[in-house]
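#lab-general

N.A. 3:47 PM
ok so I finally got the sequence cleaned up, no stray characters, all 729 residues accounted for. can someone with queue access submit it? mine expired

B.Y. 3:52 PM
send it over

N.A. 3:53 PM
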Amino acid sequence: MASNEPVYYQDAEKCVEDVIRKVGKKIVFGLPLGLGKPNQLANALYRRAKQDPDIELTICTALSLERPKGASDLEQRFLGPFVERMFSGYVDLEYMVDLRKKQLPDNVKLLEFYAKAGAYINVEDAQRNYISSNYTHAWRDTLARGVNVVAQMVSKKEIDGRTYYSMSCNPEVALDIGDAMREQEKQGKKIAIIAQVNQNLPFMYGDAMVEADTYHGIIDTPDYYTRLFGAPKMSITTPDYMIGLYASTLIKDGGTLQIGIGSLGDALCYGLILRNKHNAEYKRFLQDTGIREKFGDVIDRIGGVEPFEEGITGSTEMLVDGYLQLISNGVVKRNTYQNAPLQRLLNEGKITETITPQTLECLVEAGAVNSCLTEADFKFLTEFGILEEGLSFSDGYIRCGELRIKADLNDPANMDLIVSRCLGKQLKKGILIHGGFFLGPERFYNELREMSEEDRQKIFMTSVLNVNQLYANNRYISEELKSLQRRYGRFVNACLMVTLSGAVVSDGLENGQVVSGVGGQYNFVAQAHALPDARSILMCKGIRGTGKNAASNIVFNYGHTTIPRHLRDFVITEYGIADLRGKTDGEVIAQLLNITDSRFQEGLLQKAKGAGKIEKDYVIPDRFRNNLPQRLEDEIAEYKEKGLFQPFPFGTDFTQDELIIGKALKGLKAQMSEGLSKVSSLGRAIAIRGVPESARPYLERLQLDNPQSAKEKMMQKLVIYALSMQGSI
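B.Y. 4:20 PM
back already:
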């Protein structure tokens, strides 16, 4: 493998042989987070390690994707046909199959810094080998482990006769670890950087687009153009919708948005679209539910409720499919530009994206270009469309066809000629979204592939060192430009729990078990405090569990912290907004109690009083005393009847029958988890005699229409009971 020209392969096994020949049998193998793993290559290397115990293989990665699996027999019956339909053709990661079976060989170690939420609870090997790291430190920490092989899935495209490659879904760490490994190679370290082509992957631009010599080896065969992992959409519940609506009121027109994956992110997107496209209904809902009355001051100060005139831009670790919804519905429409003087003039309103003579004058006045244009000035003006295409520059003159114009803007005659003959019409190279990586449902990838090249180029895929943090580095844009682009930044993320001191729990439990990972959350919270007009918004469901198993996610204290209390800012539950920045401990407690489920308010208040953290005579205001799930359901019911706030507003891969069955099974699971209710449910299910005709399609879907064993007969009765309880039969 030459260091400047890649070797091309059509077989992952041959590539593995060359990698081992080059770097030896002690391999630290870096793979990207999520979608971008080259599964065929990873499997070939893993199989080789299983066959040869002399190979010492350490896999460094995050979010190793797995097909959904049900925990119970009923769930497996439900998911089986869905998984076959949605994942047929997807190549599983063999090391994950063996991890689940507790069959990882002794010479293989899997290290991860992020996992699907809850996926590794009680998986001891994964718990022991978790690396707690900020996303911006993942490349550094992987280097510290001695990584000598990295690989990822890419797409390719011919542009002007040359083949380019795109890191597509995962430039966020690969860019930086690749640069660092190349420096190590210059010092004599044996390394291998491998790409595996999959043309199902959208070709993305920005820093993700690279040349062939980025890699030592490129595996390219249509046999490996296999199905991408599609993450199924989760339904949006009433609490999700309420949290998303509250968050939508804090997003400022003309600002910047970061959001994450999942139902809370989808709910925020829905709230923003409702605000922009159905503003009368949006405002009416805020009025009817008392949101304007309770939180109007903070909404008016920080965000707004009007439609988006200027629109917002995206600066996000994860490019979620909701951003495409925001683009198509006119919410994300604020372009940013990779030039600080240009961006500053736009922010200040001195120029617009429409080119006028004033554009040139302002650029000269701001010192962005010289009054006597240089060749560098000419390239800048042409690059961003301020001067039209087809012009040339030499010896201080602009050539427009046969016309030569002296590039001296101080001369009115020259200026008039440049304006009349050379000026462009609209700024070019605008960017709507800066993103680090993407993962989502299969139709999201299809939408990206089907976008026009012009529209796809407005999504700038880059490193987390660029997106997740404010301070600059050698490869990416300046801190000044980041600050200008990320005006009115609103960095929205989800969390598990919030303590009354304002500390946030997002990635783990107090017994040390890892739930997911820190990822980029700390980065964005810190960035929100560093930017002059930005805010961190953490969304937290107010309760977990139902009935007797319900527990508050606002807690007095907790034995694990992801975001320390000194970085507290906005916290949102389904019951409202708590503005914690700059507040005293007592004020923070009062704010958080206002958005706590009312079943737990008094107990938490008494604990705070007992610790001397709030006045002994403090009383929670009456208007915050009815924070109960049923109130929310009652308030939203009228709007659901009008077709708003549906479970899957952006589509679903489930069939209508599957949606009905899934809802019934979810309700049954919740009921069966509650003490005496479990006994009652079983009793009523056992009492069922006969099979209603209306239940047969659902039973057939679960292969319970003709039960054979006693277990299957009991499951059939439970399904009929669950369907009848929700009124589906």
